[in-house]
């Protein structure tokens, strides 16, 4: 649920997402709370997930899949819910990270907005694991 990564580095990511009418998280023309959280999780996973898809020299790793789970949500504040046709801008800052050989645990501080209106603020913990495809 991310259309485009606007900015990304090792500690920060910013994405945009256009809410369409057929989105699973749209009810009565409103993008519900679970959608905001899923958009935030997918935005956050791009920072830690990219290490599995690309080597340090930028070469893409083939036959790699990544699965991720939200392990905790903290200090969630939902200020407003966007509507169909709105474009969400989501920003996330890396707070902490522990990387194993094929998994990463991280904590990120996040916010999403439409224009100047803040929609969501939270801290999210993610567990990201690499799986290798066969065949």
TrEMBL record:
This is Possible beta hydroxy acyl ACP dehydratase. InterPro entries: HotDog_dom_sf. It comes from Flavobacterium johnsoniae (strain ATCC 17061 / DSM 2064 / JCM 8514 / BCRC 14874 / CCUG 350202 / NBRC 14942 / NCIMB 11054 / UW101) (Cytophaga johnsonae).
